[in-house]
Amino acid sequence: MKKNFVAPLLLSSLMFSLTSCQENRGISITNGDEYSLYVGDTLQLLISYQNIEGFVEFSSADTSIVEVTDTGLVTAMDVGSTYVTAKLEDYTDTIAITVEENLPLVIEADKTDIDVGEKITIDINQEAELKILSGEDVISIEDNVVTGLKTGLASIYAQKGEIKSNILNITVIDSSLVIEGIDFSADKYYLNIGEETTLNAVVYPSILNDFVSYEIISGEEYIEITNNTLKGIKESGEEDIQVVAKVRDYVSDPISFSVYEPGETPEKVNLFLDKTYIYSKYKTKIEFKSYPETAAKNISYEVIEGEELVKIVKDEIIPLNSGKVTIRGSISGVMSNEVTIDILFDSDDPYIDVDKEEFYADYHEATSYIDAIYRSRHNLMSGDISLQDQEPSISTYQPKDGDKFIRNTAYRYLDSGNTYLIVDAYGTPVDLIYKGGAYTSLEDVAAYLYAFGDIPANQIEEKNARPQNSEWGEYLRLNFSYFSGDTDRYPYEPELPDISGINGNTDYYELDIGTTGTDCDPSYEAVIYNDGNKITRGAARIVASIYRYGEKITDPNEMHVFYTYNHYNDFQEYLNYRGGWGEMFGNITGGGTISSKEDYNPTPYVETSYSDFF
Q: Please, are residues 209 and 242 in contact by the beta-carbon 8 Å criterion?
């Protein structure tokens, strides 16, 4: 029996003209007398003509075993034997066709992960030749034995005639290589159900990059991983989804994912940062809100300035080098606001190992935002450190609109919002205040609160602390707490604008201002606030509006910053310029007795006029 495999040959016609007349007439099938096929194979019959011409008719004796077309193309349908006949006029020829079961060619191995120099034997279920599909420099083959040559991936298969086996993937690893780390990240960390992201892992040494696998260590019901593609399959809510990258026994730090039900396209996306600066070896978080609440939350972040300085893993900013970085987010094509953060490295820090006595012996105020940040890192001051009296220093000229003091509504920021420009009563720039800096003077702290809605670096929330226990020493300032403004409990206090303690919607907070004494109130000793050994809190406070309807006030012109140096009996409003303090109002102003709940007469808040100084 002859067993051949012939590629199909389409014939547009089987009619041939005879070139000469001969006595012998007839046709013959030139493929032979018999032929073997496997189920599903095809065979094109070829015809030879002797002194005859015309169209050949083909037929199968059993079409369940083979079928044949009118052009002579035979298809093996099932196991068995039959005949196919070719006929032209009264002349015929036949070919016997045997159809065999197509036995698959299979290769197997006890293991597919081997070390350099290790050998494994490949099992083949038929006589066949073993071949390398890829990775010829990674492995070698001899007599069905595979040998690992170097670290890498290889693929092998077996072939018998036209039949090819399954593909077997071989991994060769040099076990002597020490894994120093895996840098693991993803293209996206916030996914909608059905959304996919690519996992990225860089191994040190990089020769092992091809051997990374991924493992879900928590939240396996919310995601699935195929190769290096992660897909969200169920909303995770507050549940933590964590995935690691692995090579051999080495496991990366986990990274987290969140999966959401698809939401509507947001109207607005806002980004917030924990800090406006971070030092090397530290991280900070990005927070976001999409509006309305039902809006989609599958955010992705983009570094639009300083891409080489940071890496973002989910909501964490990881510093790589020093400089300024600007980030924005997007959800469903809607862009967020931009946020900027400064990356600070020890190599740029001028105050490492500084002697504090020498620093203050030749003291000058901070010269830049970055300078202020480095100072605060080492508990060094940025602003005016001279002692101050309880009464504010008021500008000799204060602009008015009729009988109302004018509050300056012009505000100017530099350094991506980290530096605030302070002007005088004429609108002339006179000073700068830096976010994250340390300040003690009334003017500095009032401007700081107004500009940034937060407290300086040397101010803590606690009301009880000793300067000896703080690196800030005599420059430590206490107290940042909620101020109720409850006039039922404290009837001598004047009512502040829209204060929540009297059915308003604005939350005020108070903080200590350190003066050289508060001699207007006998309840408070007239001494220095912090002499380096102890703190005498006195009666001087700043009270400022920080939140409205539970949201932090971000527009300075929607804030109020007040100063009281007689413990809430009277207040003056900061008017957003150096020496700009409004008309005093309150209990003593109205003729009441200090802090008395019987003899009190607080005058109301004195309205101001609003106008730009520029």
A: no
Using CA atoms of 186, 190, 194, 200 in order, give the dihedral in degrees to the nearest 10: 0
The answer to whether 367 touches 383, Cβ cutoff 8 Å, is no
Encode pLDDT of 502-561 as tens digits. 889 999 999 999 988 888 888 888 889 999 999 999 999 999 999 999 899 999 999 999
Superfamily classification of domain 400-409+423-611: Microbial ribonucleases (3.10.450.30)
pTM here is 0.67
124-178 pLDDT tens trace: 988 889 999 999 999 999 999 999 999 889 999 999 877 899 999 999 988 888 8
Residue 572: half-sphere exposure toward Cβ, Cα within 13 Å: 24
Burial of 355 (0-12, 13-18, 19+ CB in 10 A): exposed
Residue 479 near residue 510, CB atoms below 8 Å:
yes
Look up the CATH architecture of domain 26-100.
Answer: Sandwich (2.60)
Distance of CA 546 to CAs 140, 224, 555, Å?
72, 44, 10
What is the rounded average pLDDT for all residues in the chain? 92
Residues 6+ away with beta carbon under 8 Å from 497 = 504, 506, 545, 560, 605
Query: What distance in Å separates the CA atoms of residue 272 and residue 408, rounded to the nearest whole number?
Result: 27
Give me the residue label for tokens 């008395």: 596
Q: What would you measure as the largest C-alpha separation in the chain, in angstroms?
A: 146
Where are the extended beta strands (E) located within 219-293? 223-226, 229-232, 241-247, 250-251, 255-260, 268-273, 277-279, 284-291
Q: In 3-state terms, what secondary structure has residue 420?
A: strand
Neighbours of 67 (CB within 10 A): 16
Token digits of residue 596: 């008395």
Domain ranges of the chain: 26-100, 107-173, 263-347, 400-409+423-611
* Cα–Cα nearest to 324, from 307, 337, 343: 343
What was the pLDDT predicted at 23?
58
Which of 65, 64, 60 shows the shortest CA–CA distance to 45? Answer: 60
Q: Which residues contact 142 (CB under 8 A, 6 or more apart)?
A: none
Quick one: tokens of 387? 């002692």
Is the bond preceding 602 in cis, omega lying within 30 degrees of 0? no
For domain 107-173, give its CATH number from 3.40.309.10, 3.40.50.1000, 2.30.42.10, 2.60.40.1080.
2.60.40.1080
CATH code assigned to 263-347: 2.60.40.1080
CA distance 521 to 333: 60
